[in-house]
Specification:
The relative contact order is 0.25. The chain has one domain: lambda repressor-like DNA-binding domains (434 Repressor (Amino-terminal Domain)), CATH 1.10.260.40. By secondary structure, the chain is an all-alpha fold. The chain is globular, with a radius of gyration of 10 Å. It contains 4 helices and no strands.
Length: 68
């Protein structure tokens, strides 16, 4: 599942997700749009926070842009 889709499905704002991960809102936005990819530590945190709903491959499968 794409991070954008997860945030929408769970009704979580990018700002709230950023707070939970200890990252900036702009970083979450860049991950959602594909401008940047999370590093290994962030990937682990995303998998833990989403309980496996968002996995590393979800950031690489498609170049479609999402939006947070």
């Amino acid at each position: 599942m794409k991070l954008t889709d997860y945030l929408l499905a769970e009704n979580i704002t990018a700002a709230e997700f950023a707070r939970r991960l200890g990252r900036s809102r702009s970083t979450i936005g860049r991950w959602c749009t594909g401008q940047r990819h999370p590093d290994a530590g962030a990937m682990r945190a995303i998998m833990e926070e989403t309980k496996g709903a968002v996995m590393p491959n979800d950031f690489f499968e498609s170049r479609e842009s999402g939006q947070c």
